[in-house]
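does this look right to u?? nicotinamide-adenine-dinucleotide version
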Amino acid sequence: MTILVTGADGYIGWPVLLKLAETFSDERIVGVDNFARRRWVEEIGSVSATEILSPAERRKKVEKIGRISFVEGDLTSKEFVNMLVRVYQPDTIIHLAAQPSAPYSQISWEKAVYTQFNNNISTLNLLWALKENGLLDTHFIAATTTGVYGAPEYPIPEGFYEVEYKGGRDIVPHPHMAGSFYHMSKCNDINNMFLAHKQWGLPVSDVRVAIVTGATTEEAKNELSTRFDFDFYFGVVTHRFCAQALIGYPITVYGKGLQGKPFVTLKDCVESFVELAKRDGDGYRVYNQTLGAVKIVDLARMIQEAAEEEIGLEVEVKHVPNPRVEKEEHEMVIENENFRKLVGKPTDLKEAIKDIFSTIEPRKKVIEAYKDRFLPKGLKK
Ligand SMILES: NC(=O)c1ccc[n+]([C@@H]2O[C@H](COP(=O)([O-])OP(=O)(O)OC[C@H]3O[C@@H](n4cnc5c(N)ncnc54)[C@H](O)[C@@H]3O)[C@@H](O)[C@H]2O)c1
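got this back:
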């Protein structure tokens, strides 16, 4: 048995690779990455708050285990992907490689095109390599995003819902109402994966990943830490808020902050991918990988309180003009029954926030040095 993990050097991919190694004792595990995430963060002038090993050091660490390979390559190259699939014949693919930042994809025409080309061609290459190599029983597990749903005024179903129109009725995929060129790249991926499933029978687990929050997992910590970004482009809201609080900078809420956003802890995110890898694929299954929605102002308050409890710091919550085009008031209700069957009771967000503070506190100086990266140019705290 072989499990192929794309994006294995990433924030989620690295802990997934380590947990797979811990969980599966006989399987061969192959991690792939082109290390682009390291370059993007450098390009926008920031750094990971946690110290992470270089690609060569990470390769050395995992290859010591014996059954693990760490391959460098770009998934937008058809030749590379075909070689990968032909040589390793994966039974399972956990596809995590992507340019994952919405604000980065919105910078310019070049970034929007780059993001969609990178994400969509990588996924298409993998799907076609499975087809061309006669591997259509491979369980294709892909990270998409809860962002594809947009912000509808009704409970968000897990991928599909029943529609009644002019006397007819059907179960159909939920419409894509994404709010950035990055999120649209995931909508395009979903369309292509659904097509590959319908036309070729490829079993797909489409994991709609929420805002992943946390700094460590059982395996990815200390020397084996995963990255932790806190800048405007690559830091998710929870990570930015925690980094701001840690150095006594105001927690900057965009606009009113009354919109509910879905969250998931890093631990549950990683665990559910590994849990899916234990199973054979079956149809086209969608998992809303989230513990539920929390309003941004409530998240800010939660982090403000945690900063006081964990590190004895009093920080201010400040509202700044919203650099995003989005609803600032929204009651998000999102169903997650399929996901809950994978992890049981999701881990508490407060636990993940505690874990973040204890992990990044020793790296306070790094965050202090890059605090001008918290907000985009033109937005002052
Ligand atoms: N972190 C989140 O909050 C979040 C939320 C929703 C969805 N997701 C999705 O989860 C997946 C993993 O996200 P992440 O936060 O770990 O991001 P990440 O950027 O840390 O990881 C993605 C990895 O893929 C690699 N990669 C990108 N393009 C590649 C290519 N063409 N060839 C080879 N490798 C390539 C990058 O170098 C990076 O290491 C992505 O698909 C992302 O869109 C993440």
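Residues 2-373 form a domain with the Rossmann fold fold (CATH 3.40.50.720). idk if thats expected tbh
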